[in-house]
Task: structure prediction
Amino acid sequence: MTTNERVFSPVNSSPCCRPIRARLDFSALRHNFSVARGYAKDTKLWAVIKADAYGHGQFAAARALDGLTDGYALLESEVAVSLREQGLRQPILLLEGFFAPEEIARIVQYDLTTVIHSKNQLEMLAAARSRPAHVYLKIDTGMNRLGFEQQETGAVLQQLEQLGIRQITLMTHFADADTGAGFAAQLDSARQLAGRANLPWSLANSAALMKRPESLGGWARPGIMLYGGSPFGLTPGRTAAELGLRPVMTLESRLVALRTVKAGERVGYGGTWQATADTPVGIVACGYADGYPRHAPTGAPIAVAGALSRTLGRVSMDMIACDLRDVPNAMIGSPVTLWGSGEGGAVDADALAEAAGTISYTLFCALAGRVPRVYENL
Ligand SMILES: *Cc1c(COP(=O)(O)O)cnc(C)c1O
Result:
């Protein structure tokens, strides 16, 4: 290997010595997909692989679901083109459509399905030399983010027809398929609009797919559940484990130092945790520069040598401290699971996310480039 190759080779190509790594178990991805399928037997499924498959690797995820999913949904048309060039034939949906007029020719050439959500996109389509056969018409039914106003639907449909686009699916996105505020009104609006124009629809994300069977039919768009996160967080009865979902990503590392922190002493930046008694403490090779949430407070769940423990003090860039009082056999090199399930034990990503005041989506997406990936069961 020349020096240049070493400098420019991807950081995640071969794990060496710092013990942190992310193990990605694609048999769990396929399992979770079959769980989604079980909820939505007469509904086609877009496997949502946006954001690099929620941090899991979009090309690996696409390959792992080949032969199972009805299609893939993502954001960037250049990623869709790469998937086509790698031989992927299934439908591909661009969840936000095109951002620039240059993308339209690519959408046509590579047979991509595009969302159209705005007048601006409609103008770009009208000015384009070629037009896609199939579009997803996104209507805003209450999210107030993307989509045409409901009362514009008729006029937009007419314009699409004039442009020679006849295959149209009505799409909307729920603001709260989970706790239900506004869900029924959004569903009602979508139903009416689709019914009036006799259009197929695509409504459900993971939460709606599992909790709102009335929103199924047409095509659903599960994302987080495929990666083993629960869209309901730790809601009793609806945790990932209770839903039968398995973690795909396990972030694991090892203890790299041990110490006893004396009563009255403090640990880490700001000294936010103070020992009330002499406490055995382990230092883990994982910090916020690896994607661990810096805002996780003392007490966040962490598994060490098979025992569930807790973090102590602030998360540093490259390290975090943990409590070893209930891990009597801990030593340097003991395995640690930050989230997922591995040699160190199991930590539900949703439990860590809740402790850190966030959602498991952000943990997965934030996994840093410097963490070596180990792909399993691809
Ligand atoms: C991200 C996304 C989804 C998937 O949502 P999950 O909550 O991860 O299941 C579905 N539809 C659209 C439009 C999205 O942007």
About this structure: Residues 48, 50, 95, 173, 205-207, 221-224, 231 surround pyridoxal-5'-phosphate (CB under 6 Å). DSSP finds twelve helices and 19 strands in the chain.
